[in-house]
Amino acid sequence: MTTSIQGVASQRQKAAPAVLVLEDGRIFRGRAYGAVGETFGEAVFSTGMTGYQETLTDPSYHRQVVVMTAPHVGNTGVNDEDPESGRIWVSGYVVRDPARVSSNWRSRRSLDEELRAQGVVGIQGVDTRALTRHLRESGAMRVGIFSGNALPDEGTLLAEVRRQPEMKGANLSAEVATQETYVVPAIGEKKFTVAAVDLGIKGMTPHRMAERGIEVHVLPATATAEDIYAVQPDGVFFSNGPGDPATADGPVSVMQAVLERKTPLFGICFGNQILGRALGFGTYKLKYGHRGINQPVQDRSTGKVEVTAHNHGFAVDAPLDKVSETPFGRVEVSHVCLNDDVVEGLQLLDQPAFSVQYHPEAAAGPHDAAYLFDRFVSLMEAERA
């Protein structure tokens, strides 16, 4: 084992130089991790200490460069069971001290190998604590990672970063969603049929519904109301996904058609923002967003505080202190983030529809919010009765 560790350490020492350039001119230097080359995106940080494989394969991270605040990443390697989709979606990956060897009985290869195999450019040896503090103070921003033995001057790299598109105004859900409808069968006895609009859905989400006897028909992001009702659903689900919800006019229109028919409705993350817009609320970009598996959220109906998994850079602009009147009846904010009072859930009072801004499927944990799938089942049971 000693020889193996020394061999890996030797390979790390030979890694090509790399530089991370933020659009405000701040520069961090390190060594290449994963593929060698260049990549661009929005610099964001994730506070999860576990679940890096689920983070990497979450379609909501499309066009984002993820900074891991946990200093040690990659220690359990990569397996073939935990991905949330068929590929890595992050645009780039930033770690401080990657594991020299993988140690887990399910591991099939190292994280570095997987990043290289999928062409994901990363950087290691960066002071991620300083980088995270900078993003908290200055906000999420465009970034580039460049690696190789012959890099251009810093001014050239900065100009390249500033030429990249911003996340605000980006319409990305159709780029990550399925192109064809597929079905996830119920586990055990089938009780309900749900039409799930894929805006960047994670694999664990239909699985959580299947565990509860739901047959899930996963539809493309471009699905129409006619497509949804063609599967004769007992309920309709709108998934998480990347991009600016202000650009999602199509899904908003489809959700309004669902609300008009008063079909039981559940939305997660991007789906929460779509519901907010469908009800007439605005959305806005957060300074640096919520990303990680340790975000405290209060369920205002019970007062209970849940530790939850998040990945969002936009939020719904709805009043916390009153019930709002909308074209589809009364609505209230059902959940709120205790760190910054961001709206984390909406509940309609006159028809069976609700949403949350976070991720109750949380494959890597925590599972405090798993009851929300049961709440969705209860809505469909009540509608059937």
Give the SSE map.
Layout: H1 2-13, E1 17-22, E2 27-34, E3 38-46, H2 52-56, E4 64-68, E5 72-73, E6 92-94, E7 97-98, H3 111-117, E8 121-124, H4 128-138, E9 141-147, H5 154-162, H6 173-176, E10 182-184, E11 192-197, H7 204-210, E12 214-219, H8 225-230, E13 235-238, H9 249-261, E14 265-268, H10 270-278, E15 282-299, E16 305-317, E17 324-326, E18 329-337, E19 343-348, E20 353-356, H11 371-384
Parallel strand pairs: 3-4, 4-6, 5-7, 6-8, 11-12, 11-13, 13-14, 14-20
Antiparallel strand pairs: 1-2, 1-9, 2-8, 3-9, 10-12, 15-16, 15-18, 17-18, 18-19, 19-20
Describe this structure in words.
This protein has 385 residues and is α/β, with parallel strands linked by helices. The chain is built from 11 helices and 20 strands. It has helices at residues 2-13, 52-56, 111-117, 128-138, 154-162, 173-176, 204-210, 225-230, 249-261, 270-278, 371-384; strands at residues 17-22, 27-34, 38-46, 64-68, 72-73, 92-94, 97-98, 121-124, 141-147, 182-184, 192-197, 214-219, 235-238, 265-268, 282-299, 305-317, 324-326, 329-337, 343-348, 353-356. The strands form 3 sheets. Strands 10, 11, 12, 13, 14, 15, 16, 17, 18, 19 and 20 form an 11-stranded mixed beta sheet that branches. A 7-stranded mixed beta barrel has the order 1-2-8-6-4-3-9. A hairpin with a 4-residue loop joins strand 1 and strand 2 (27-34). It is globular and about 65 Å long. The relative contact order is 0.13.
